[in-house]
Design goal:
8 strands, two-stranded antiparallel ribbon, about 900 residues, mainly alpha
């Protein structure tokens, strides 16, 4: 068997050692059974003894070799079977959840079985229910099934006798504290030396090549240069390369051509927009509260701009974490760091909760949950009501962590969600003093103004004659008189409406009726108020954040079964024991806050932290290759998937820390590697050795995200607006979409055509309403952290992009661009179209097919259309629509 894999080799060595001891015992036992247990033997008997020892030794050696070979061929329970069960089965069949009364954590539990009998028959996979349900695809439930390669491992394990292994009882909840790989600090591995050293461009390649060589395979050839350029542009900035950019790269044959492209793209502001969108998925970013009214989160967009700028400036990741968790508690806290804490408040909010106390804990649970998944990649949130059923997290761990966030307060005015001013303490103090002074001066002038106005108003309302005609009859309506006579703070809803309706007309009449001294007093007061307002200091930005107001923290108590009315013991702030210490932590409060979040941020960003660096480099890897080195990107726990390349993951994690937490450094290592440049070509031999492409011997094509598809269409059509930052935009939506809300159209604004053509990251993110082009292409659910987007293939996708208003408009603009830039020559138009949409030239077959299409379409279209477009123009528009709907446009190859 192949025992070149280090993990397997260690297992086989243990088996071989056990075989050696057993063989020695066999020799002694055989000699004893034959009566050769004493050294006082006759010569001939000694000769017989020697002969028997030799025979026994040979038999033992043969048994030892057979044991080692069978060990190499037979899967082990701990290292081979447990990971498969963890990924696919234990969620429903463990000590915590026994669907069908079946527990699959150990072979003994499988033999005991459930309501349908034993799940395991040792030595016979074909008659074992466990294997039967895997191969007939009825289990696990849901779309994700056990791959054939893993089903084969299960079959071989059962057929070989279903060995229990030394750790059979350590799966699920009983996993010993601290033994899980992800809870150990990463150790920097040495970069491997491989046979095919010429393929290695960055250390990433060395680790991947080592794994491939262990399987006796190598990578496929690199992709062609046009495909590589398109891959780099869409991967790094989310936009296709322009014809000019393609021309420059294809003409550059220097060894550094690729490196120059990568550095250029990393320096562009569009890089931050592209990668910020991935982070916004993770932190459940939205600009509305959810629930029935789904009110707007004021100024939440500032957090989006903060993330974009952080990525563009290559803000160190440890600083990025600290600002989002404790930007208000940090030394040198500023508007920027305080805006970063919007991270904590992005979740849903019920403006009219049935149980306010429970809703308060739901809000804090959301903060704890997204912190645990985004930065740690663990499911700590599952321990709210009881000890975690699968992970080594206790309920006390949960509430110790929750205590870090309990001092937070939510700015609100009854059902209205509020934002707050942000800035340095000096900036805010100076502004508030200036504002207080200006407000007092304005109040004095407004008092003078109101005295003059009211004197005139009393005369007007008391007038009995009708000499001035019916156009001012409204002045004598009792409701209007009462509305204006009532102080502003005491007006009811109807009175406010009347004042709003008639106020401007009243002001005109007041100036007409006022006597000269009164008119002078009114105009002087208004002029002075305008001057004071004009001299005001600019208001600092406002941000959508929580806040703390005291260094004293409220008590946090464990809630029995998660019920806020069933209070248990008081707990002190801390982190899960498996990751830290159960001892009380030393937290230094600040003048206006408890300092607890700052303590947490510092703990998270320790250089030896087992999870923080691993989790973020895994997210970057996923962004490029479609799946992380740990495929369960938000779950590095016992129930998560094991890394496919553990050494590479730890190398990248330690390299991130060594680089000063530079994310762009990790991007360079990945994108400049040979692995990133591979062709997507399939190879039969390599496919048999690694059908899932776990070793990354080829590029795996994958569909682009919804935003990259929309942005790409705008770029190709020539309509894309690259304006950055600021309040969100509102593209036109079909009436049917707006009417799908409980309050149709509420909260959805109107942007002009140029604003609406900005990148998709700037579209207002409303929880109860989605842009069709984004929704059908699996834009994430913003109620929780999205580790990886679903990729579906549905009929509405084709209908939306073939018949939708947005795609139709882009196809028309695309066709107009072809006419404008390529003239009326069909070949030139076809060549430019493929270059813009697919980043390559059309092949002869494609050119011929397009020419035929244009001719046939032009014949079928009648002249004299109502928009004055010619049949030729409409045919060209049809061709543009076809290109925008091609698989090659939607997929990154």
């Amino acid at each position: 068997g192949d025992i070149s894999n280090e993990r397997s080799r260690g297992h086989y060595q243990k088996r071989a050692t056990a075989g050696l001891y057993t063989g020695m015992l066999m020799v002694l036992s055989t000699a004893d059974q034959l009566g050769f247990g004493t050294w006082k033997l006759e010569v001939h008997r000694r000769l017989q003894y020697d002969l028997m020892v030799m025979i026994a030794a040979r038999l033992a050696f043969a048994w030892l070799v057979g044991t080692a070979l069978s060990a190499a061929a037979e899967p082990g329970f701990e290292q081979d079977v447990v990971p498969i069960l963890t990924r696919h089965c234990l969620q429903c069949h463990s000590d915590a959840v026994k669907m069908g009364e079946l527990d699959l954590r150990t072979p003994e539990a499988m033999l005991h079985g459930g309501s349908k009998g034993p799940a395991l028959v040792r030595g016979s996979a074909e008659t074992s229910l466990l294997y039967q349900r895997i191969i007939d695809r009825t289990m696990p439930m849901g779309p994700k099934k056990v791959p054939d390669t893993e089903a084969k491992i299960i079959r071989e394990w059962i057929d070989s006798g279903a060995d229990s292994g030394p750790a059979a009882a350590q799966t699920g909840q009983s996993k010993k504290r601290g033994e899980h790989w992800a809870f150990q600090p990463p150790e920097r591995p040495a970069v491997p030396t491989v046979k095919n050293q010429a393929w290695v461009r960055t250390p990433v390649d060395a680790f991947l090549m080592k794994a491939m060589e262990s399987k006796g395979i190598g990578p496929v050839a690199p992709a062609d240069r046009p495909a590589l350029l398109r891959r780099a542009y869409l991967g790094l900035i989310g936009l296709p390369p322009t014809p000019a950019e393609q021309k420059v790269f294809l003409a550059d044959r220097s060894p550094t051509a690729w490196d120059k492209v990568v550095e250029d793209l990393l320096s562009r502001p569009q890089y931050g927009e592209r990668w910020a969108r991935r982070w916004l998925d993770v932190v459940r970013y939205a600009e509305s509260n959810g629930y029935e009214r789904d009110g707007t989160k004021p100024n939440a967009w500032r957090y989006r701009d903060y993330v974009i700028q952080a990525f563009n400036s290559d803000k160190p990741y440890n600083r990025f974490i600290m600002e989002q968790l404790a930007g208000d508690e940090m030394e040198g806290s500023s508007a920027e760091t305080q805006i970063a804490t919007t991270f904590l408040r992005l979740g849903t909010w019920d403006d009219e909760p049935a149980e306010p106390q429970l809703d308060r804990y739901d809000q804090l649970d959301d903060v704890l949950g997204v912190t645990a998944t985004a930065f740690l990649g663990v499911t700590l949130r599952c321990a709210r009501c009881h000890d975690h059923k699968f992970e080594p997290f206790s309920q006390k761990d949960y509430y110790r962590t929750l205590a870090i966030f309990t001092p937070l307060k939510r700015p609100q005015d009854d059902r209205k969600d509020l934002d707050r001013l942000v800035g340095t303490e000096a900036e805010l103090t100076a502004y508030l003093k200036s504002k207080e002074k200006a407000d007092a001066e304005v109040a004095e002038r407004e008092k003078q103004l109101e005295e003059a106005r009211r004197a005139v108003m009393r005369r007007m309302f008391a007038a009995k004659d009708k000499a001035r005609g019916e156009d001012v009859a409204w002045l004598r309506h009792a409701e209007v008189v009462l509305a204006f006579s009532t102080p502003a703070g005491r007006r009811n809803k109807e009175q406010k409406k009347l004042v709003e309706e008639f106020n401007s007309r009243l002001e005109e009449e007041i100036l007409k009726e006022a006597e000269t001294p009164e008119r002078n007093q009114i105009e002087t007061a208004r002029s002075e108020i305008a001057a004071i307002d004009g001299a005001r200091s600019p208001e600092p930005p406002r941000a959508y954040i929580w806040y703390e107001e005291s260094a004293e923290a409220p008590a946090t108590k464990l809630l029995e079964r998660g019920d806020p009315v069933s209070l248990g013991e008081e707990v002190q702030p801390g982190v899960p024991e498996v990751l830290g210490s159960a001892e009380p932590v030393q937290i230094q409060p600040t003048r206006k806050s408890t300092g607890r979040r700052l303590w947490l941020a510092r703990w998270l960003t320790r250089e030896d932290h087992p999870l923080t660096a691993r989790v973020i480099v895994n997210r970057i890897w996923q962004g490029y290759f479609g799946e992380g080195l740990v495929a369960s990107e938000n779950d590095f726990g016992v129930m998560g998937q094991r890394p496919t390349h553990a050494d590479l993951l730890d190398y990248l994690a330690t390299e991130l820390v060594a680089s000063g937490w530079s994310l762009k450094h990790i991007h360079r290592l990945i994108v400049m590697s040979s692995a990133y440049r591979l062709s997507a070509a399939w190879d039969e031999k390599r496919g048999k050795a690694d059908p899932e492409n776990t070793l990354l011997w080829r590029w795996k094509p994958r569909r682009l995200e919804a935003e990259a598809i929309r942005d790409g269409m705008l770029a190709v059509s020539g309509k894309l607006t690259l304006k950055m930052g600021g309040p969100s935009i509102f593209p036109d939506l079909p009436r049917a979409v707006l009417e799908g809300q409980s309050r149709p159209g509420d909260g959805w604004g109107k942007s002009d055509s140029q604003e609406a053509a900005r990148r998709s990251v700037y579209i207002f993110s409303k929880r109860s309403l989605a842009v069709p082009e984004l929704e059908v292409m699996d834009a994430p659910d913003t109620t929780s952290s999205c580790e990886q987007r679903t990729v579906s293939t549905t009929g509405p996708q084709a209908l939306t992009f073939l018949n939708g208003d947005f795609t139709g408009a882009q196809a028309r603009a695309f066709a107009e661009r072809l006419e404008r830039e390529a003239g009326n020559d069909a070949d030139a138009q076809i060549g430019l179209a493929f270059t813009l949409a697919y980043g390559r030239a059309p092949n002869p077959e494609e050119r011929h097919a397009v020419r035929e299409f244009l001719v046939q379409q032009e014949r079928q279209i009648e002249a004299g259309t109502r928009d004055n477009r010619t049949p030729r123009q409409r045919a060209l528009e049809g061709f543009a629509l076809v290109l925008l709907n091609g698989n090659e446009f939607f997929y990154l190859n």
